[in-house]
Design a protein that fits this description.
The chain is an alpha/beta fold. It is built from 12 helices and 14 strands. The longest helix is centred in the C-terminal third of the chain and has 18 residues. The chain is globular, with a radius of gyration of 19 Å. It starts with 5 loop residues before the first strand and ends with a helix.
Length: 316
Amino acid sequence: MSAPKILALSGGIGGAKLALGLYRVLSAGELTLVVNSGDDFEHLGLTICPDLDTTLYTLAGLANPELGWGRRDETWTFMKTLESLGGESWFRLGDGDLALHVERTRRLKAGETLSAVIAAVAARLGIQATILPMSDDPVRTRVATDAGELAFQDYFVRLRCAPQVRALRFAGAAAAAVAPGALAALAAPQLEAIILCPSNPYLSVDPILAVPGMRAALRSSGAPVIAVTPLVGGQAIKGPTAKIMGELRLAPSPLTIARHYSGLIDGFVLDARDAALAPQFALPVHVTDTVMVELTDRERLAREALSFAARIGRRA
């Protein structure tokens, strides 16, 4: 495979769309993905890694197009049987998906790192890109709400983002270390661009940036850092980004997100529906259609983001 040239930070469904576009327009081995693991949790005795698994399934062509998460052509015998026994069924685990959780849990308990497990699964699925958790250490997103502090999956899945968000914290981040593979990729002299995928900045990207050393490694790489907007016309295509911003008393605008990443990014990809905002940005902006409905949309946006990064060039 080729040497890694592009590194992207991503969360789940929204970020994985652009990740797939990047994967398809780059040569084998040129893409490294650092994925949020703040959503990970223990459930039914198993280690569940929603964003990492969404990334694996998406790049392997196994993602469920109807649900947006899990595996395609899934069956649900396990969940139906669990429900009949009175077990917890609010977090849906399909039969095929369950096998990944069981195997990951077994390997982690045997002493393997999360990075090693994900790399092994990616190889089994024929993925020719490097997929890494942000850290091999446990970091867990906690959501302070009007209903009290909640574990992320309780807020996001069980309660369907209904409680009002007051604050976010990333338990364990201060003691965590950036995954070694991510540090190596960021230090690679051939790295040409870093892309912040259109994932929720507060729920999906901030946990990655909360790991000590991650921001410094991003800035010291020298490669231009490009953020792709997760908002179109003040709304998120998928997920609660705009809702959370409102509850945190932040204007649901791409300008707010650019300011949130201030000091980190060198350019911003803005949706054409928000083109009137472009003159208000304090950094270079590329205006285009960022809505990714078809596979061709993902590939086009990936090419444009990479071309934009090349125009900006490396930092001194």
